[in-house]
Design goal:
Blueprint: H1 3-16, H2 19-27, H3 33-37, H4 39-42, H5 56-66, H6 68-75, H7 84-96, H8 103-107, H9 114-127, H10 133-144, H11 153-167, E1 180-182, H12 186-191, H13 194-206, E2 210-211, H14 222-226, H15 229-246, E3 250-253, H16 257-271, E4 278-281, H17 282-291, E5 305-307, H18 321-330, H19 360-377, E6 381-384, H20 387-399, E7 406-408, H21 409-415, H22 423-427
Parallel strand pairs: 1-2, 1-3, 3-4, 5-6, 6-7
Helix pairs in contact: 1-9, 5-6, 7-9, 11-13, 13-21, 15-16, 17-18, 19-20
This protein binds iron/sulfur cluster (2 copies).
One iron/sulfur cluster binds near residues 29, 32, 33, 109 and 114.
């Protein structure tokens, strides 16, 4: 790496040190409580995975640039400037062993939002050329093709055609004046296209006016995960432009964790203006349909079901009551895992870890935490609301020889729609 990119990285870190970050660094009492909250520490026992330690290069820049004693020590040559070797060493700590799950932020006794700081540190790492190859590739595809998995419009159109044949009615695309613009994640389009059929059937049954945009169907935001705000803003802008063009009242974020964080919480700050529409997660919309008496289901799952809270939807997004309200409609044997809801343990693959092949072994170690939670309740199936979590859960369960199906909450609701024939019955 050149000296210029190291300088760019240090400058980016300096720029990212805002008032909250500086306060967090000075407030840290080095108690180590954040370690026990992080699945990468608990499942490896390695102290290098202590959350606050992952921020050491940024802490060093803060100390040297923004504190009296740090500046003094630097001038006297008592503290050395950040080096490329340090950034190289920290790359795996900042990207491979952090899912931005925010669990550490919940336990810090002085209120440090460590996940927020790691998100900021990634900006400096990316600027200095220290982002993982897998995430760089995903981000490049998101910018040039429009999707981190390289999914193009014809692939979505093919899935829509197959779904229409199955459900027997048209799926709205580019409908101006629809109430909702539904976004999707590439993983849903390619791995779980049943989700498209599920929302179509639910909205058809409940009379909701909605549309997909051919110009901005992708909800995921690689810019947020890798830590490049300009790219993150561009990806948010695409959805905003489509929503404005179609004159919708609200945008629906799909069953994807970080997509919700990107469009709902970070988006307006990234693009520097408020949206002229609202943003909801799909579970918020479904729960609202329940509350207003429009969503009716029939029959209940007799299987023992549990719910995996996706971190960005529950802990970081505040959507943890809605899935339980919905599950109560369709599950007669719902069991909570220990430490559920806002203190749920991450699946181990969020925050871009799933796009970073180098982290494959570590993410499976981290999954042991989820395994322990599942072992405690021995469910017949696990329900979730994030396609990325579903993939990691399926892989982790397979690796651990656990025969537990992973199902989508939206799809489960669609299976039980009153007035609907279930997919099984339709296919037989
Ligand atoms: S955000 Fe989650 S994965 Fe990252 S350091 Fe904190 S607890 Fe660990
Ligand atoms: S829990 Fe908070 S105060 Fe304690 S070491 Fe971690 S960041 Fe510092």
């Amino acid at each position: 790496m050149s000296g210029a990119s190291l300088e760019r990285g240090i400058n980016a870190l300096k720029e990212q040190i805002d008032a909250p970050t500086a306060t967090f660094f000075s407030a840290c009492v080095h108690c180590g409580m954040c370690a026990e909250a992080c699945l990468f520490f608990t499942e490896t026992g390695d102290p290098k995975y202590t959350p606050i330690h992952k921020l050491e290069p940024m802490r060093k820049v803060w100390h040297q640039e923004y504190t009296f004693w740090g500046k003094f020590a630097r001038i006297l040559g008592l503290s050395k400037p950040l080096t490329d070797a340090e950034l190289t060493e920290w790359e795996t700590l900042v990207y491979d062993s952090c899912t931005l799950c925010g669990r550490c932020s919940m336990v810090c006794p002085v209120g440090n939002d460590i996940a927020y700081m790691i998100r900021k540190m990634r900006e400096g790492m990316a600027a200095s050329g220290h982002a993982p190859a897998g995430m760089i590739g995903a981000t490049r595809r998101a910018v040039t093709i429009g999707s981190p998995m390289g999914v193009k419009l014809p692939a979505l159109e093919a899935q829509i055609r197959h779904t229409e044949e199955e459900i027997g009615f048209a799926i709205p695309v580019d409908v101006v004046g629809a109430e909702y613009l539904c976004t999707l994640s590439s993983m849903e389009i390619m791995n779980f296209p049943e989700y498209i059929g599920a929302i179509a059937r639910i909205f058809h049954e409940t009379g909701v006016s909605w549309t997909i945009s051919s110009e901005a169907f992708e909800a995921t935001n690689s810019g947020i995960q890798i830590g490049v705000s300009d790219i993150a803003a561009e990806l948010v802008e695409r959805i905003v432009r489509a929503a404005e063009k179609l004159k919708v009242k609200a945008v629906i974020s799909p069953e994807c964790g970080h997509a919700y964080t990107a469009i709902r919480w970070e988006g307006p700050n990234l693009i520097g203006r408020p949206y002229p529409f609202k943003v909801f997660h799909i579970l918020e919309v479904l729960d609202d349909l329940r509350k207003t008496g429009k969503l009716h289901t029939t029959g209940k799952e007799s299987r023992r079901l549990t719910y995996h809270d996706p971190c960005q939807i529950s802990r970081r997004g505040g959507v943890f009551e809605q899935p339980r309200n919905l599950l109560n409609m369709v599950a007669e044997n719902f069991v909570e895992m220990p430490e559920n809801g806002i203190m749920n343990w991450c699946c181990g693959a969020g925050g871009g870890v799933s796009a970073n092949e180098r982290a494959d072994e570590l993410k499976m170690k981290a999954f042991r935490r989820k395994k322990a939670q599942l072992d405690a309740v021995a469910p017949d199936a696990v329900v979730s609301a994030c396609a990325n979590c579903r993939i990691q859960l399926e892989e982790g369960l397979e690796v651990n020889n656990m025969d537990i199906p992973v199902i989508s909450l939206t799809e489960t609701i669609a299976e039980h729609l009153a007035g609907e024939t279930s997919t099984e019955a339709r296919q037989s």
